[in-house]
Amino acid sequence: MRLGKFIILSIVLLEFAGCKNLEDVELTNRNTFIHFYEKSANYSGAVAEPLQDGFILLGNLNQDLKFSSIVSRTDLAGKVIWEREIPNSAMRAIKVTTDGYLVLGDSIAVDPLAAQVTDIVKAKARLIKIDDSGNTVNDYSWGSSATNVYFHGGAITLDDTGNVITLGEIDAPNSPTRSFVSAHDPISLKVVWSQTYGYVNRDFINSRSIHFTATQKIIWASSALDEQSSTKRAYLSVPFISPNSTFVNSGLFGQNEDLYYSAADIQPSGTGFGIIGTFSNIQGQNQNIYFVRTDPSGNIMQDSQKFFDGILSADNTSLTIPTNSETGDTGNALVSTKDGGYLLVGTMATTTTRGNGGIDILLIRLDPFGNMLWNKTIGGSGDETPSTVRLTDDGGFLICGTLTIGGLSSVFLIKTDKKGEVK
Predict the structure, then answer these.
(1) 178 CB-contact burial (10 Å; exposed 0-12 / middle 13-18 / buried 19+)
(2) Strands (E), 88-217
(3) Residue range 77-104, pLDDT digits in tens
């Protein structure tokens, strides 16, 4: 570890925890923690999942067009038990199974002599099965034989028969980005069926999650994006499909507005699904967090939309005027809570009235009706960007993401109590 970066990370850790010395953050006998993981290259956090006796963590390394992914198994205090590197990859999702883990993302090939800059990094979707010790059981990639058509794996779930369901995006020249949904044999990982979805004149940009419902349907969220040179217009689309079929339903939100809505994450609750993303005008200004709820079939529930700003919502209220904004915010991830509500996890840019410097993590706790119960920030002097949040057995929250400070990035893993506190 480079000494300078070790000192920086130690200072940031103390700022996060509000402690005066390193002994104050001793992890023994604690059920909350903040842990940093750093490598010799820029290291970003993709996802972390809770286990009965620890956590499984997925991150990505990127240095000088060299790409690889790291799967880390930790104990309940976040201490690494084992690590496995996946060369030539950029992985985004991990699914815990009864006998190991499924990891989804991209298989990366680099061609530095490519005629076009966009063709230097080539990608196929990649699904890997590893066992409980991190050994590779199977490794399967798929894509297109057409020139400059790239598949990107993004989200993963299982259906009721054990098939692996993957969600991803297809980039092709002179064509909008489309979504694909594929089912895979759980042993060979080969594609059993696959369908593509999208619009003629808009890119389909997926959320980080996909779900198989009790009614044997598949649901996810996408942003239907129209991006020009200086503007981005997008509305939320919630596809709700039968396996191996075309659309049978798609909930829509913001389709009649000249605004931008991203689709960062979708997660189930007892009454349907919650969706989080980032809202702004078409120039990317007045950026806030938005949240909407759907029924079990993915239809947007009327008047369920809520908008939040890191400064204006500090008094535990949502915005009455969505475009009001005192700080730049992003909606990154969410999880349902035991009472049927949600924890929203995003970012806010520090201002003179709130924040610890740079970009901080913003936690927003909602009741089952979308009313705010509390909100708080976590962060140090660097930029903290969360990628996923999960509920733990004790009612607390596990947050994974990336800390960037001094141009260098590291993975963070935060375990809070049920009130979002790190003690």
Answers:
(1) middle
(2) 89-97, 100-110, 121-130, 136-142, 150-158, 164-172, 175-184, 191-197, 203-212
(3) 999 999 999 999 999 999 999 999 999 9
Burial label for 2, CB within 10 Å (0-12, 13-18, 19+), is: exposed
Structure tokens, 206: 């997926």
Pairing of strands 260-261, 265-269: unpaired
The 10s digit of each residue's pLDDT in 20-44 is 333 344 444 468 999 999 999 999 9
The one-letter amino acid code at 191 reads V
End-to-end alpha-carbon separation of the chain, Å? Answer: 27
Q: Is 316 left (phi over 0), alpha (psi -120 to 50) or beta?
A: left
Confirm whether pTM is higher than 0.85: yes
Angle, alpha carbons 384-390-394 (nearest 5°): 115
Tokens 């002179």, located at residue: 174
CB 83 within 8 A of CB 67: no
